[in-house]
Design goal:
The strands form three sheets. The protein has a five-stranded mixed sheet. The protein is built from eight helices and ten strands. Strand 5 and strand 6 form a beta hairpin. The chain is an alpha+beta fold and 209 residues long. The chain starts with a strand and ends in a 14-residue tail after the last helix.
Length: 209
């Protein structure tokens, strides 16, 4: 793992959240990350808090997400329960939900229908989340998970643009094109990044001034 320095109760509705929920979510992320580190179970921070940990200045509003292997789910649930964290049983079969300090926590086994693997977790970067270092999904894997979630029913590019801009020098764009270039929405987003000159064009050319 690379080390870098830098930067169920009823679900809470978005309208009920304060304008900036960042610090409350960070506190829960640190609590859970510390428990998982102590357990020795492999994991990595994903989602919006992972974006924040990589230094992208976004406001956190919803929850905190951790990627864990499906085979470790039972051990994760046991570890959390022993520490007094409320574990919930969602209808989905690709994650476990929990709550602590009034915040929702998701433990995800499949990122956009792709299973969480040891190889994915091994590539995580150790980054500080506020004051606690923990594994955070690597930039290329983080962008891959966001691209894989795009579809004709979910194709809002606006939240992805600041992420792509902030991570562009740390991402293997050729690999993302290889993995997602045949999918309409991810390919459209990659094309948009080329036109905005966030990333190089596939053919190496540039727009004329």
């Amino acid at each position: 793992m690379k080390t870098f320095r830098g930067a169920q109760a009823e679900p809470r509705m978005v309208d009920d959240l304060p304008p900036d929920h960042t610090q409350a979510i960070l506190e829960v992320t640190k609590e859970v990350g510390s428990l998982l580190k102590a357990s020795g179970l492999p994991f990595a921070l994903v989602g919006s808090v992972a974006v924040y940990a990589h230094g992208i200045p976004i406001a956190l509003q919803h929850d905190t997400d951790f990627a864990v292997r499906r085979e470790d789910a039972e051990a994760v649930v046991q570890q959390l329960g022993e520490q007094g964290i409320e574990v919930l049983e969602p209808p989905e079969d690709w994650l476990v939900k929990a709550r602590s300090q009034g915040e929702q926590i998701d433990f995800i086994f499949d990122l956009a229908n792709r299973p969480v693997t040891s190889e994915l977790l091994d590539r995580a970067w150790a980054l500080p989340v506020d004051s606690v270092h923990m594994p955070v999904l690597a930039p290329t894997d983080l962008l891959a998970s966001l691209l894989a979630a795009l579809s004709e029913h979910h194709c809002d590019f606006s939240p992805l643009l600041p992420v792509a801009r902030g991570l562009r020098e740390r991402v293997d764009w050729d690999l993302l094109r290889e993995q997602h270039g045949s999918e309409p929405m991810p390919d459209a987003f990659l094309f948009l990044l080329e036109r905005l000159e966030v990333i190089p064009r596939r053919d190496g050319t540039h727009d004329k001034p």
